[in-house]
From TrEMBL:
Main location: membrane
Bias type Basic and acidic residues, positions: 784-813
Gene, per the UniProt record: CLCN4
Keyword Transmembrane helix: yes
UniProt keyword annotation of Membrane present: yes
Domain of life: Eukaryota
Gene Ontology terms: cellular component: early endosome; endosome membrane; Golgi apparatus; plasma membrane; synaptic vesicle
The name this protein goes by in its record: Chloride channel protein
Native organism: Sparus aurata
GO terms for MF: antiporter activity; ATP binding; voltage-gated chloride channel activity
Parts of the chain that traverse the membrane: 101-125, 186-208, 228-248, 260-276, 288-312, 365-389, 401-418, 474-494, 501-520, 548-573
Annotated family: Belongs to the chloride channel (TC 2.A.49) family.
Pfam families: CBS, Voltage_CLC
Domain (CBS): residue spans on this chain: 633-697
Subcellular location(s) per record: Endosome membrane; Membrane
């Protein structure tokens, strides 16, 4: 993470986020004018001039970061009150029990709804994907496979053909074969694809701009404490569910797995609004969203354990032990619900069930590791190319025409995909075929081997055989499909439609792995006397399983793109049921991560977070600058001083003028401008709402009224208007560090404590006089801190008395990609 000095915090509109701000002040004594109880609960209390706090005080504005410590303090206070009241009556005891069980109820509801939506999406995608090629005459809502299931005229050799299912050319012209039928089917395939993608991008653009993309980068940012209002709203949930079906059915090189995490988090946010425990506390809400992310992966892959690990390793920022238990429960309920719907029709939860009959051998670790190297290189290539394309989309005229871009990419994809049977079918079906082992009952081209007529082995233990013409033809088609998938996925991911990356990445790896597996299999058959095969592959034995190589390649490419390790391996063996092959999966995943990390530490989601300018402090980033908190402090000598509030001498008009003329997130409260001794810190939003509400509901509050933050009102002349007490919106115990604290420590404090601001103290005892400073740092990737300390603190003989401000900020772009950032002028 690179640290630079930036302009003061300016939050104009939706564009600029200033959250990791460190305001530096030093308290002479934190308990000035406060009781110990107030010190503990200063952040949690709200208003003093009203009996009950009014709405929105203590909440956060859009595109801001929450204060984790304040949210934790609030929840502790709430829990303490409920516990104390539970001893007063039976009704209060019942309410406390309901509060304790509300978390489990929310998890149950999330699992049920996310599992149901995932099942409906799977069924709809299967039907609409097949609709591009034909229709079932007996029941138009049946997919191709379901239509032929119900037919009594289907033979085993022609299991994909039945009288009830007709392609569009056969239905319209009566001819199923021939050049004219092929052209007509080709044209209608492209037409359906364009229609589906046009509907998807139009719905997203008109009704829910936040429904585009994968959603995982934004989910990671939200779980780290960032506020993006509407991203997990009801409209986003509805539109994302509908457009996800349309986007996947269009045949674009994207998957539904990533967006299902977004859908599950929308379900979690929806149910949070039913319980005040979660709706009024952003920290508790994020615990629910972490569990919802686990449920999303659980239904996406049929991998509940992998979903929990994915949430822990890849998505969540704060993951306490109770969230682990609840995530497991939500993932379990979601998986059970999906299994009850049975969208795959195989009575299994896993998406790509495989059953291999040959163990793997130690010598095969070499090609497995090579597949890991390929996965790491592919991940690096994809991330750099996709980020370059997305950046070009943001900075050129291309970003102004998202509908045209989607239509163009869809048209190119459909035109190039139809001639190749491996790209024409859905990506999930392609991966399933690549994972399968070739048994005696398989009819795929990949299983067109030359059989020995004298073979008398069991059906499940077929020895290695020479490849037939169908296998070689399939290899050429797979090679073309590999190039096509690599190129088209770069331009597809990031468009203004729901687009997941898991399945396309797995498809690239599965194609490469299957090609390598067939090559190793044929080498072992034709050269079994080589030393590498001699010890474990005898003539006539079933030595190599090409489907296993496809599975390992899929894991390697997915790991290279996302940089997942533990959760990836668990997802893969849950996804396929291949627990015996966990070691090859681990070897490939670790190798792909090592290779990819050699070219850059960021995975695809972290890269998109940086591209969009979201304020995300990754715990895995290393802070390499050897600087202190004082090294990044601004302003310089001639810069304006920091705007502060005094504890009992500032008027309402002064406060309103200060709020109007500055864009700071909050203001330090000092005893007086002469002593500048810290009393506390008040948030800008709370201050604005408190004054607005006081003017409406409290008689006598006018512009000349004195605002005071002390316990007792100041001594004022009788002619003065009624003063306004705002002590309860004052944080009396802000977190502090010294100005000589290393910036590495400061960054760690922000990461691990989730602070919104940190007060940095500078104390000089030469004349028992104190200097107060307000400092912030900008965390901005790609910029480097300018070395050299500012000279803004007076001479060495006497400390300066000015208070200064530097704001730490991150920038964010709204969904339309327009950068509305406007630097604010220096405040005086």
């Amino acid at each position: 993470m690179n640290v630079t000095v930036s302009q003061p915090d300016c939050l104009s509109g939706e564009s600029v986020i200033s959250d990791l701000s460190a305001a530096l002040l030093h308290p002479v004594s934190i308990h000035v004018g406060s009781t110990p109880t107030e010190e503990m609960n200063g952040a949690g209390n709200l208003m003093d001039f009203l009996d009950e706090p009014f709405p929105d005080v203590g909440t956060y504005e859009d595109f801001h970061t929450i204060d984790w410590l304040r949210e934790k303090s609030r929840d502790t206070d709430r829990h303490r009150k409920i516990t104390s009241k539970s001893k007063e009556s039976i009704w209060e005891l019942i309410k406390s029990l309901l509060d304790a069980w509300s978390g489990w109820v929310v998890m149950l509801l999330i699992g049920l709804l996310s599992g149901t939506l995932a099942g409906v999406i799977d069924l709809a995608v299967d039907w609409m994907t097949d609709l591009k090629e034909g229709v079932c005459l007996s029941a138009f809502w049946y997919s191709h496979e379901q239509c032929c299931w119900t037919s009594n005229e289907t033979t085993f050799d022609d299991r994909d053909k039945c009288p009830q299912w007709q392609k569009w050319a056969e239905l319209m012209t009566g001819h199923a074969e021939g050049g004219g039928a092929y052209v007509l089917n080709y044209f209608l395939y492209v037409l359906w694809a364009l229609l589906f993608s046009f509907l998807a991008v139009s719905l997203v653009r008109v009704f829910a701009p936040y429904a585009c993309g994968s959603g995982i980068p934004e989910i990671k940012t939200i779980l780290s404490g960032f506020i993006i209002r509407g991203y997990l709203g009801k409209w986003t949930l509805l539109i994302k569910t509908v457009t996800l079906v349309l986007a996947v059915s269009s045949g674009l090189s994207l998957g539904k797995e990533g967006p299902l995490v977004h859908v599950a988090c929308c379900c979690g946010n929806l149910f949070c609004s039913l319980f005040s425990k979660y709706s009024k506390n952003e920290g508790k809400r994020r615990e629910v969203l972490s569990a919802a992310a686990a449920a999303g992966v659980s239904v996406a892959f049929g991998a509940p354990i992998g979903g929990v690990l994915f949430s822990l390793e890849e998505v969540s920022y704060y993951f306490p032990l109770k969230t682990l238990w609840r995530s497991f429960f939500a993932a379990l309920v979601a998986a059970f619900t999906l299994r009850s719907i049975n969208p795959f029709g195989n009575s299994r939860l896993v998406l790509f069930y495989v059953e291999y009959h040959t163990p793997w051998y130690m010598a095969e670790l070499v090609p497995f590791i090579l597949l890991g190297v390929f996965g790491g290189l592919w991940g690096t290539l994809f991330i750099r190319a996709n980020i370059a394309w997305c950046r070009r989309r943001k900075t050129t005229q291309l970003g102004k025409y998202p509908v045209l871009e989607v239509i163009a990419v869809t048209g190119i994809t459909a035109v190039l995909a139809y001639p190749n049977p491996y790209t024409r079918r859905s990506t999930s079906e392609l991966i399933s075929e690549l994972f399968n082992d070739c048994g005696a009952l398989e009819s795929s081209q990949l299983c067109d081997y030359i059989n020995n007529p004298n073979m008398s082995r069991p059906v499940d233990d077929i020895p290695d055989r020479p490849a037939g013409p169908g296998v070689y033809n399939a290899l050429w088609q797979l090679a073309l499909a590999l190039v096509f998938k690599i190129v088209i996925t770069i331009f597809t991911f990031g468009m203004k439609i729901p687009s997941g990356l898991f399945i396309p990445s797995m498809a690239v790896g599965a194609i490469a792995g299957r090609i390598v597996g067939i090559a190793v299999e044929q080498m072992a058959y034709h050269h079994h006397d080589w030393i590498i095969f001699k010890n474990w592959c005898r003539p006539g034995a079933d030595c190599v399983t090409p489907g296993l190589y496809a599975m390992v390649g899929a894991a390697a490419c997915l790991g290279g793109v996302t940089r997942m390790t533990v959760s990836l391996v668990v997802i893969m063996f849950e996804l396929t049921g291949g627990l015996e092959y966990i070691v090859p999966l681990m070897a490939a995943a670790v190798t792909s991560k090592w290779v990819a990390d050699a070219f850059g530490k960021e995975g695809i989601y972290e890269s998109h977070i940086q591209l969009n300018g979201y304020p995300y402090l990754d715990v895995r980033d290393e802070f390499t600058h050897r600087t202190l908190a004082t090294d990044v402090m601004r302003p310089r000598r001639n810069d304006p001083t920091l705007a502060v509030l005094t504890q009992d001498s500032t008027t309402v008009e002064d406060v309103e003028t200060l709020i109007k003329d500055t864009d700071y997130n909050g203001f330090p409260v000092v005893v007086s401008r002469e002593s500048e001794r810290l009393i506390g810190f008040v948030q800008r939003r709370d201050l604005t709402l408190a004054i607005k509400n006081a003017r409406q509901k409290q008689d006598g509050v006018v512009s000349s009224s004195v605002v005071y933050f002390t316990e007792d009102a100041p001594q004022l002349p009788a002619s003065n208007p009624q003063p306004l007490k705002l002590r309860r919106i004052l944080n009396l115990s802000p977190f502090t560090v010294t100005d000589h604290t290393p910036m590495e420590t400061v960054v760690d404090i922000f990461r691990k404590l989730g602070l919104r601001q940190c007060l940095v103290t500078r104390i000089r005892l030469k004349k028992l006089k104190f200097t107060s400073l307000c400092v912030c740092v900008q965390a901005s990737p790609g910029h480097h801190h300018q070395e050299g300390r500012p000279a803004s603190h007076g001479s060495d003989d006497e400390p300066g008395s000015r208070v200064h401000h530097v704001q730490l900020e991150r920038r964010v772009l709204p969904p339309d990609g327009v950068n509305r950032y406007r630097p604010s002028p220096p405040s005086s």
